[in-house]
Amino acid sequence: MLLELTNLCKKYSYGDKSFYAVRDVRLSLNSGDFAIIAGRSGSGKTTLLNLIGGLLSPSSGKVVFDGSDLMSLSDRDLSALRNEKIGFIPQGYSILSNLTVLDNVRLPYFLHRRRGDARDRALALLKEIGIEHLANAYPKSLSGGELRRVAIARAFINNPKLLLADEPTNDLDTESAGYVMKLFSRAAAEGVSVLLVTHDPDIIAYGYRIYQMRDGRLY
Ligand SMILES: Nc1ncnc2c1ncn2[C@@H]1O[C@H](COP(=O)(O)OP(=O)(O)O)[C@@H](O)[C@H]1O
Ligand SMILES: [Mg+2]
Does 198 sit in the ligand 1 pocket, CB within 6 Å? Predict the structure, then answer.
């Protein structure tokens, strides 16, 4: 098993009130699985993805990824694991404005000392999602949908074992959404485990393990 969530909970507190954004979630994913979690805004999708990606710590329960309990790792080991093995596509804006598109996509490659410069791989990814012509542009000249695709290409650059995508087709037109979903499908066919959360009913058909999230619970 590549990813195993056991009784995962995340509690938020406001003053003397508290509530669970993620409640008792259990989920197992193997290499090559393509899972989609659908749910309305506020159902806990982003919180769940951030727990799996090691960006948030759970209130209780466990995330075991590739044999490691994420909470048992030091910050440094967790960062290394994320850089090497997890491609994360966050919900909001995450592109650095002072780097070109090409350098944004290559950044995770450079963050961990590696040989070469990943230029060809980055260009191939940009081509696959239809924005190769923007390789040398700066983010300020890109549309929301183009920026989203840069973040998607960036998540693939280090050949991750697990891809976590938070509403990846937001701001995309139907054609671009199609390119992006094909990229995910192909990754899954090549053995990458893909977990995507969305409120977009049109893309649910791409996954073959479909879950619903409601009030922090997974069904
Ligand atoms: N950092 C936070 N502090 C307090 N409440 C939060 C925080 N992040 C999210 N929430 C709340 O948790 C619930 C789930 O949010 P979220 O995971 O963003 O859902 P979704 O991605 O499905 O829209 C919402 O009610 C949201 O307001
Ligand atoms: Mg969200």
Answer: no
User: Residue 204 carries which DSSP code?
Assistant: G
CATH of the domain spanning 3-218, picked from 3.40.718.10, 3.40.50.300, 3.30.70.20, 1.10.260.40? 3.40.50.300
CA-nearest residue for atom 6, ligand 1, is: 12
Ligand 1 binding pocket includes 47 (Cβ within 6 Å): yes
Residue with tokens 């973040």: 151
Indicate whether residue 158 lines ligand 1 (CB < 6 A): no
The residue whose CA has the least distance to atom 9 of ligand 1 is 47
Supply the pTM of this predicted model: 0.94
Encode burial over 9-40: b for 16+ CB neighbours within 10 A, e otherwise: bbeeeeeeeeebbbbebebebeeebbbbbbbe
User: Pairing state of beta strands 34-38 and 193-198?
Assistant: parallel
pLDDT confidence of 117, banded at 50, 70, 90? confident
Token pair 């994913």 in the structure block, residue: 29
